[in-house]
Amino acid sequence: MDSPTVLRRRLGSELRRLRERTGLQAKSAADTLRFSATKISRIESGRTTLKESDVRALLALYGVTDESELRQFISLTRRSTQRGWWHDYGDTLPDWFQTYVGMESDAERIRAYETELVPGIFQTVDYARATFRTSLSGRHADIEPIVDRRAELRMQRQEVFARPTPPTVWVVLNEAVLRRSVGGPRVMREQVAHLIRLAQRPTVRIQLLPFSAGAHPAMSMAFHILSFADVPGRIVYVEALTSSLYLEREPDVARHEFVFEQLAESALSPEDSLSWMSELVAEGYGHDG
Fold first, then answer.
1. How would you label 129-166 residue by residue, b for 16+ Cβ within 10 Å and e otherwise?
2. In this structure, what DSSP letter does residue 219 have?
3. Are residues 211 and 231 in the same domain?
4. Residue 220, exposed/middle/buried by CB under 10 A (0-12, 13-18, 19+)?
């Protein structure tokens, strides 16, 4: 079942298509309905929950009168307002990250470059716990319940691999991701061993970008590019400490796709990356001490 996040994007995409078919600019549509231009933008990008009254007003403006088509749009609107499974983690999941989790749960293809951290859907539970303990240190008197809750959410995100049609995930990892010890030698050995198992799945491609590759165009940033089966366009997700960006403009997406291809070309092949990780596990990350 599609997530509410993707349903909102599908609905927004259809409303954009109808507006463009009528020849209306977004500002003109907003002015006519006494909406803000920002509201139209958020509706068409699927970044806001729609009211039936707003959808009916937009459809009337765009000349949609067919009863069957109207019922389809209203049904889609109602389904898009339902709660996704991740809303049960609202106590620990920042609002700005909920959109990403919803998109990730229905993405057909995920491409990502990571500079310092194993991607969430690739993390072992102990690696996840170690990262959360570090990020929460000094912010709460008792962090363990929060660590447990966040680790539980992170593990549930990985159920995308159990879907009948799992997403294609292609990740380029900076060498620093696996050189930096998170949680100690045992945790790192288990984490890299898990990456090795994942890399052998037909829908997963992992490449290591070695330090020897030198300078590259994404040295200061990590990013994810998400694509969907039945929603046009792609979204670039960029995360900061307390917020995130969702980029959808074609020039922005195209630039990130170009950089990702450059990173993939500079990285080790999937086969060589698998060998590199196997050697790293054999080395043992030192002693647990």
1. bbbbbeeeeeeeeebeebbeebbebbeebbebeeeeee
2. T
3. yes
4. exposed
The pair of structure tokens assigned to 222 is 């990590």
**Does residue 219 carry a pLDDT above 80?**
yes
Would 272 be classed as within a structural domain? yes
Does the pTM surpass 0.85? The reply is no
Tell whether 51 and 162 lie within a shared domain.
no
Rounded Cα distance, 50 and 41, in Å: 12
CA distance 36 to 24: 15
Band (pLDDT 50/70/90 cuts) for residue 155 is: very high
Radius of gyration of the chain (CA): 21
Domain termination residue (choose one: 80, 114, 139)? 80
Per-residue pLDDT, averaged over 40-63, amounts to 90
Tell me: do 64 and 107 sit in the same domain: no
Our count of domains for the chain comes to 2
Q: Determine the Cα–Cα distance for residues 289 and 266; give it in Å rounded to an integer.
A: 36
Structure tokens at 14: 């259809």
The CATH number covering residue 187 comes to: 3.30.870.10
Average pLDDT over residues 258-272: 98
Show the tokens assigned to 219: 């040295």
Task: Please count the CA atoms within 13 angstroms of the CA of 187 that sit on its side-chain side.
Answer: 16
- Say whether both 206 and 101 belong to one domain: yes
Separation CA 245–CA 109 (nearest Å): 19
Q: How confident is the model at residue 242, as a pLDDT?
A: 84
